[in-house]
Write a structure and sequence with these properties.
single chain, alpha/beta, Rossmann fold, 5-stranded parallel sheet, two-stranded antiparallel ribbon
């Protein structure tokens, strides 16, 4: 199979959701079977030998890739949700954003001590959600083996915030 240029399937939508933001629309990629398969296989390939036990992703668009990457890696999947969305006991982590704060949650038993966890999301921007996700996994006794993204918005410098972490992205926007 020829290499798929994933960039062709990602559209820029100016001024969405508000003026000054350029939204990365991945729905064309999701609609194309070859591009979708290439993205999932590409995200998983780097971690095939990392002995990943669990893949975790934050809602909402992370859920589009996380479970599929977990299947590719023969690993389990754990959702990272907004507060109040999980039906059982949950652990939470609050974090600062440029414009305020936010909180994420995981089921209290989602990560077992010693489990090797891969964090997966569609886009990494400033890295705030991933930083909080990693801290939450580690508080539960897990080891974050990497963070994998379809798109990295490098101009927002997420690698600075996540210094010392294994970060991999298929598409980099400079």
């Amino acid at each position: 199979m020829a290499a798929v240029q994933l960039e062709k399937f990602i559209l820029d939508v100016p001024d969405f959701p508000k003026k000054g933001i350029v939204f990365k629309d991945i729905t064309p990629l999701l609609a194309d079977p070859g591009a979708l398969a290439a993205a999932i296989k590409g995200l998983a390939a780097r971690y095939r030998d990392a002995k990943v036990d669990l893949v975790a992703s934050a809602e909402a668009r992370g859920f589009l890739f996380g479970p599929a990457v977990a299947v590719e890696l023969k690993a389990g999947f754990a959702p990272i949700r907004k507060p109040g969305k999980l039906p059982r006991a949950a652990r939470k982590m609050s974090y600062q954003l440029e414009y305020g704060s936010d909180t994420i949650e995981m089921h209290a038993d989602a990560v077992k001590p010693g489990q090797r966890v891969l964090l997966v999301d569609d886009v990494i921007a400033t890295g705030g959600t991933m930083e909080a996700s990693a801290k939450l996994v580690e508080e539960m006794g897990g080891k974050v083996v990497g963070m994998a993204f379809l798109i990295e918005l490098a101009f927002l410098k997420p690698r600075e915030r996540l210094a010392g972490r294994e970060i991999f992205s298929l598409v980099t926007v400079k």
